[in-house]
């Protein structure tokens, strides 16, 4: 980061999306009738189950594929996924927890300064794009680590990436570019 500003930026993880497989066929109707905190969506061919601790929502398909959303860390996502597999086992399915993978992490971070989005976009033209008629944020895509950063003029940024490490790396990479384009303080 910047040597004159030794403050650490707080990266707050707001959502972790993970997937896993049960390696068995699941009867959605049975899950809907016998499970707790269940929403049955037959028009989409899935069941939603909500867990309280860790707080996650799982989309379950009859094929045995499950997507868990809402966790605030990779560990919480794995814990929630394992708890969900256990819930399905208790409902009588021969579930084997396999192919667990964190597929997306969403985080927010606030810069200690406001940003001139037009300058930021001009200086980083091929990678950054800003269309104020469509969205109030500039989009900066880092292909090497598969991360996308939404930069708002207030200094807030939203980062999506495949894991927590890539999200942290994206914030480290974009900080100097944002510092160059910080808005002067009004007097």
UniProtKB/TrEMBL annotation:
Entry keyword annotation includes Transmembrane helix: no
Keywords: Cytoplasm, DNA-binding, Nucleus, Transcription, Transcription regulation
An MF annotation (GO) of this entry: DNA binding
Keyword Lipoprotein attached: no
Location within or outside the cell: Cytoplasm; Nucleus
GO CC annotation terms, alphabetical: cytoplasm; nucleus
GO term, biological process aspect, one: DNA-templated transcription initiation
Residues in the signal sequence: none
Family, per entry: Belongs to the TBP family.
Annotated protein name in UniProt: TATA box-binding protein-like 1
Organism for this UniProt entry: Cyclopterus lumpus
Lineage of source species: Eukaryota, Metazoa, Chordata, Craniata, Vertebrata
């Amino acid at each position: 980061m910047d040597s004159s500003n030794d403050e650490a930026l707080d990266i707050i993880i707001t959502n972790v999306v993970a997937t896993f497989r049960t390696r068995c066929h699941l009867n959605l109707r049975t899950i809907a009738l016998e499970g707790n905190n269940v929403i049955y969506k037959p028009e989409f061919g899935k069941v939603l189950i909500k867990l309280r601790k860790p707080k996650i929502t799982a989309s379950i398909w009859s094929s045995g594929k499950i997507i868990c959303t809402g966790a605030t860390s990779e560990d919480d996502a794995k814990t929630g996924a394992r708890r969900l597999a256990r819930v399905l086992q208790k409902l009588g399915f021969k579930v084997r927890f396999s192919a667990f993978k964190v597929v997306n992490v969403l985080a927010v971070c606030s810069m200690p300064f406001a940003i001139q989005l037009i300058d930021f976009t001009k200086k980083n033209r091929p990678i950054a794009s800003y269309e104020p008629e469509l969205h109030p944020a500039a989009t900066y895509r880092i292909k090497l680590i598969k991360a996308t950063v939404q930069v708002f003029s207030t200094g807030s940024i939203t980062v999506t990436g495949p894991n927590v490490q890539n999200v942290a790396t994206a914030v480290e990479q974009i900080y100097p570019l944002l510092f160059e384009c910080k808005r002067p303080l009004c007097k």
